Automatic annotation (TrEMBL):
<keyword id="KW-0966">Cell projection</keyword>
<keyword id="KW-0206">Cytoskeleton</keyword>
<feature type="domain" description="Ciliary microtubule inner protein 2A-C-like">
    <location>
        <begin position="18"/>
        <end position="54"/>
    </location>
</feature>
<comment type="similarity">
    <text>Belongs to the CIMIP2 family.</text>
</comment>
<dbReference type="Pfam" id="PF10629">
    <property type="entry name" value="CMI2B-like"/>
</dbReference>
<dbReference type="GO" id="GO:0015630">
    <property type="term" value="C:microtubule cytoskeleton"/>
</dbReference>
<dbReference type="InterPro" id="IPR018902">
    <property type="entry name" value="CMI2A-C-like_dom"/>
</dbReference>
<keyword id="KW-0963">Cytoplasm</keyword>
<dbReference type="GO" id="GO:0005930">
    <property type="term" value="C:axoneme"/>
</dbReference>
<protein>
    <recommendedName>
        <fullName>Ciliary microtubule inner protein 2A-C-like domain-containing protein</fullName>
    </recommendedName>
</protein>
């Protein structure tokens, strides 16, 4: 069964929708004793697999799945910084930058009004976004 367009994940690091956030204690269709002790999937992936076969339930529970825009941007930024840490050979730019680093941080020159650590995270996230855009354009 093809996944409808509005259920496609918005970003590469997100669990596809519809899904429930961890900690949701309400009703889920087809979630009973057989699925209670299911291993090998995260809660989000398991609820996505349950709800994608029930499009009505998935649409009805959409308000449980929605993230506000600020949280979405923060999650994306954290994931991009983490990706940079894991894949980059340059270990100077990490999630927790040391205050007082006097070297050059690319893309930080135009970021103002935040703590040094937050500015560096945002700059590294911008670098990774540009890399992703460049990779997607070349494909």
């Amino acid at each position: 069964m093809p996944i409808p367009e509005h259920y496609q994940p918005k970003h590469w690091f997100q669990t596809p929708e519809p899904c429930c956030r961890p900690g949701y204690t309400g009703y889920l269709p087809e979630y009973g004793p057989k699925r209670l002790y299911q291993f090998g999937e995260t809660y989000g992936q398991m609820t996505h697999n349950l709800m994608k076969s029930h499009p009505v339930a998935g649409l009805r529970m959409g308000n449980i799945v929605d993230f506000n825009k600020e949280l979405q941007e923060k999650l994306e930024e954290e994931a991009l910084v983490w990706k940079h840490e894991v894949t980059s050979e340059n270990n100077r730019f990490r999630a927790k930058m040391v205050p007082g680093y006097t070297g050059f941080v690319p893309r930080r020159g135009f970021l103002f009004g935040k703590v040094y650590d937050e500015e560096c995270k945002q700059a590294v996230a911008l670098i990774e976004k540009q890399k992703l855009i460049k990779e997607n354009a070349s494909q």
